[in-house]
Amino acid sequence: MQIKELADRAGVTVKAVRYYESRGLLTPRRAGNGYRDYADVDVQVVREIRALLSLGLTAEETLPFVDCLRAGNDRADVCPASLEAYRQRIAEIDRRVTELTALRGELAELLHEAESYHPEGEKR
Questions:
Q1: Going by C-beta distance under 8 Å and a sequence separation of 6 or more, which residues neighbour residue 75?
Q2: Is residue 7 part of a domain?
Q3: Running DSSP on this structure, what letter comes out for residue 75?
Q4: Which UniProt keywords apply (predicted)?
Q5: Per-chain mean pLDDT for the chain
Q6: What is the pLDDT of residue 75?
Q7: Domain range holding 28?
Protein backbone atom coordinates (compact mmCIF):
# COMPACT_ATOMS: atom_id res chain seq x y z
CA MET A 1 0.00 0.00 0.00
CA GLN A 2 1.13 3.55 -0.56
CA ILE A 3 1.89 6.06 2.16
CA LYS A 4 -1.49 7.85 2.01
CA GLU A 5 -3.42 4.61 2.45
CA LEU A 6 -1.20 3.57 5.36
CA ALA A 7 -1.71 6.94 7.02
CA ASP A 8 -5.47 6.77 6.54
CA ARG A 9 -5.77 3.19 7.82
CA ALA A 10 -3.55 3.88 10.83
CA GLY A 11 -5.24 7.18 11.68
CA VAL A 12 -2.16 9.39 11.33
CA THR A 13 -0.90 11.96 8.87
CA VAL A 14 1.43 11.26 5.97
CA LYS A 15 3.92 13.53 7.75
CA ALA A 16 3.82 11.23 10.80
CA VAL A 17 4.49 8.18 8.62
CA ARG A 18 7.47 9.94 7.06
CA TYR A 19 8.74 10.87 10.52
CA TYR A 20 8.48 7.26 11.72
CA GLU A 21 10.35 6.19 8.62
CA SER A 22 13.07 8.79 9.22
CA ARG A 23 13.53 7.39 12.75
CA GLY A 24 14.02 3.88 11.36
CA LEU A 25 10.70 2.56 12.68
CA LEU A 26 9.30 1.85 9.22
CA THR A 27 11.26 0.45 6.31
CA PRO A 28 9.02 0.33 3.24
CA ARG A 29 9.99 -1.37 0.06
CA ARG A 30 10.25 0.76 -3.05
CA ALA A 31 7.95 -0.09 -5.91
CA GLY A 32 9.22 -0.02 -9.50
CA ASN A 33 7.92 3.52 -9.84
CA GLY A 34 9.92 4.64 -6.77
CA TYR A 35 6.88 4.96 -4.49
CA ARG A 36 7.02 3.64 -0.96
CA ASP A 37 5.24 0.30 -0.63
CA TYR A 38 4.09 -0.60 2.88
CA ALA A 39 3.04 -4.01 4.18
CA ASP A 40 -0.22 -4.69 6.02
CA VAL A 41 1.68 -5.12 9.31
CA ASP A 42 2.79 -1.50 9.02
CA VAL A 43 -0.74 -0.38 9.93
CA GLN A 44 -0.43 -2.18 13.26
CA VAL A 45 3.13 -0.89 13.68
CA VAL A 46 2.07 2.73 13.16
CA ARG A 47 -0.88 2.36 15.54
CA GLU A 48 1.43 0.89 18.17
CA ILE A 49 3.98 3.68 17.73
CA ARG A 50 1.25 6.27 18.08
CA ALA A 51 -0.11 4.64 21.25
CA LEU A 52 3.35 4.42 22.81
CA LEU A 53 4.17 8.02 21.94
CA SER A 54 0.94 9.07 23.67
CA LEU A 55 2.27 7.34 26.82
CA GLY A 56 5.39 9.50 26.74
CA LEU A 57 7.84 7.12 25.12
CA THR A 58 10.21 8.59 22.57
CA ALA A 59 10.29 7.35 19.00
CA GLU A 60 13.52 5.50 19.76
CA GLU A 61 11.97 3.85 22.81
CA THR A 62 9.25 2.34 20.61
CA LEU A 63 11.79 0.32 18.59
CA PRO A 64 11.62 -2.85 20.75
CA PHE A 65 7.85 -2.91 20.29
CA VAL A 66 8.17 -2.43 16.54
CA ASP A 67 10.73 -5.23 16.38
CA CYS A 68 8.40 -7.47 18.39
CA LEU A 69 5.57 -6.95 15.88
CA ARG A 70 7.91 -7.46 12.93
CA ALA A 71 9.00 -10.77 14.49
CA GLY A 72 5.45 -12.01 13.89
CA ASN A 73 3.95 -11.52 17.34
CA ASP A 74 0.30 -10.51 17.65
CA ARG A 75 1.20 -8.03 20.39
CA ALA A 76 4.09 -5.58 20.50
CA ASP A 77 4.70 -6.00 24.20
CA VAL A 78 5.25 -9.72 24.60
CA CYS A 79 8.98 -9.72 23.84
CA PRO A 80 11.62 -9.39 26.57
CA ALA A 81 12.95 -6.14 25.08
CA SER A 82 9.47 -4.61 25.11
CA LEU A 83 8.98 -5.58 28.73
CA GLU A 84 12.33 -4.00 29.59
CA ALA A 85 11.31 -0.82 27.76
CA TYR A 86 8.18 -0.68 29.93
CA ARG A 87 10.31 -1.16 33.06
CA GLN A 88 12.72 1.58 32.04
CA ARG A 89 9.91 4.03 31.30
CA ILE A 90 8.23 3.27 34.64
CA ALA A 91 11.56 3.80 36.44
CA GLU A 92 11.98 7.15 34.68
CA ILE A 93 8.47 8.21 35.70
CA ASP A 94 9.20 7.15 39.28
CA ARG A 95 12.36 9.31 39.26
CA ARG A 96 10.42 12.28 37.93
CA VAL A 97 7.65 11.82 40.51
CA THR A 98 10.29 11.82 43.27
CA GLU A 99 11.90 14.97 41.87
CA LEU A 100 8.55 16.73 41.48
CA THR A 101 7.47 15.73 44.98
CA ALA A 102 10.67 17.21 46.43
CA LEU A 103 10.22 20.38 44.37
CA ARG A 104 6.63 20.68 45.54
CA GLY A 105 7.77 20.35 49.15
CA GLU A 106 10.33 23.12 48.70
CA LEU A 107 7.76 25.42 47.09
CA ALA A 108 5.18 24.70 49.79
CA GLU A 109 7.76 25.54 52.46
CA LEU A 110 8.65 28.82 50.73
CA LEU A 111 4.97 29.68 50.42
CA HIS A 112 4.39 28.93 54.10
CA GLU A 113 7.35 31.12 55.08
CA ALA A 114 6.19 33.92 52.79
CA GLU A 115 2.65 33.79 54.13
CA SER A 116 3.84 33.86 57.74
CA TYR A 117 6.11 36.86 57.21
CA HIS A 118 4.29 40.00 58.26
CA PRO A 119 6.32 43.11 58.98
CA GLU A 120 4.59 45.39 61.48
CA GLY A 121 2.35 47.95 59.95
CA GLU A 122 2.11 46.32 56.53
CA LYS A 123 -0.99 44.70 55.21
CA ARG A 124 -0.89 41.33 53.64
A1: 68, 69
A2: yes
A3: S
A4: DNA-binding, Transcription, Transcription regulation
A5: 93
A6: 95
A7: 3-116
